[in-house]
Amino acid sequence: MFVVADTTALQSKTELYAELVRQTEALLIGEPDMIANMANLSSLLWAVLPDINWVGFYINRSTNEKNELVLGPFHGKPACVRIDFRRGVCGHCATTRETVLVDDVEAFPGHIACDSASRSEIVLPILVDDHLVAVLDIDSPLHARFDHDDQQGLEHVIEIFVRHTRLT
Question: Domains, the chain, ranges and CATH?
């Protein structure tokens, strides 16, 4: 049985992400199902990361007619179900296939406000051989909540997710 370790006593982001990486590895090892791993990972991130108000996945469901992301497993208030690649922070991440850090979501052109309490956001692409599978979206009610340390730590978490999950 997997138990989420208490991270409240950790002193730095480096320690927090080292523990999160350890927990992610333990949580996902031996389970290849994408939806199950997305559900468990979003739950783990919700339990461990401080000062967030939404965390979850948007899955690439593009067709020949439309490039869009569709809501996957998440924690937080109900969210937008479909996001066109031309809209919002998630759409920008899907288009560029690069992590997007936004200090002030109100200043981001085309931001989609699913939760009016959100002030900052980080969105990370999940790629397999340059094919976009999904994005991981994390929102915070704090301005400039996410920084380069968060980006590096979460990108490491995504590497573990990709390694343990059947994504094709």
Answer: 13-164 (3.30.450.40)
